[in-house]
Amino acid sequence: MIMKRFFLFAVTAVGATLLTAACGQRQQQEQQDGQEQQEHQLQLTELWEAKNLPTPESVLYHEGNNVLYVSLIDGDGAEKDGKGGVAVLNLDGSVKNQNWVTGMHAPKGMAIHENLLYVADITAVTVIDLETGDVLHEIEFPDAVFLNDVTVDEDGIVYVSDTRTGTIYQMQDNQPMVFLENAPNANGLKVADGNLYALVGPELWKIDANKEHTVIAEGFELGGDGLEPVGDKGDFLVTCWGGLVYYVKADGSFEKLMDVQGEMNTADLGIHPETNTIYIPTFNSNSVKAFKLDKK
Questions:
Q1: Overall CATH class of domain 43-295
Q2: CA separation for the pair 290, 16 (Å, rounded)
Q3: Taking Cα atoms as reference points, which of 155, 235, 238 lies closest to residue 189?
């Protein structure tokens, strides 16, 4: 009888110890999950708005000149009407030169390499001297219909997306060629860490030198537009033209930072990496808005 009671006591004690340990582990995990969730909750706080910019499509920050370049369509996005151009803004949103480059058609995505600005303009890429604002080249792309975004790698190789044909072009020494086909609704491009990243419809792709792609993230509510790396962990900011902004982590998970569908567009964004300030062209609202990205 004494042995039986001792055995029951021992079993009860062990069970209580295991239960306490399990509860402790669960509580610790919940606290850790809560801390991680809090760390990953981000927000955008509006800083300023630069108005009276005719149909701004893309914003690009340039560290060397400490300014923002803004492509202005000023009309239909697919019409060769000579009304488009590039404006220059100061970092406080004031206009430095609204007519820095004129006579373009419907300029969209931009990229800088050394002292050259590359701008997608319907079926051509315009090459502009950053010091003078002079147009150096207008390079027509074979079979292009709707060139949309541009990025350049460290060797000066230019990549350009054509959203209507689902094609990504490559250009070396001002000679364009097809790099990748069958990329439906390809838009935002960015070279980062030696790889080409592309927004292909509602997905984010990573494309290697062998033209093989990996889907990093999928399931955006709308097709992606603007793409910018943020931080040093492989994360990205993604805009969708219809009014959405996402923060995409390197593991492919993402959170929605902004949903202004029906209120304004969120076209091809720019970023100031040191201050985590992002610049969003509102397209049909004819303005650029600056936001601070930080934790809640």
A1: mainly beta
A2: 56
A3: 238
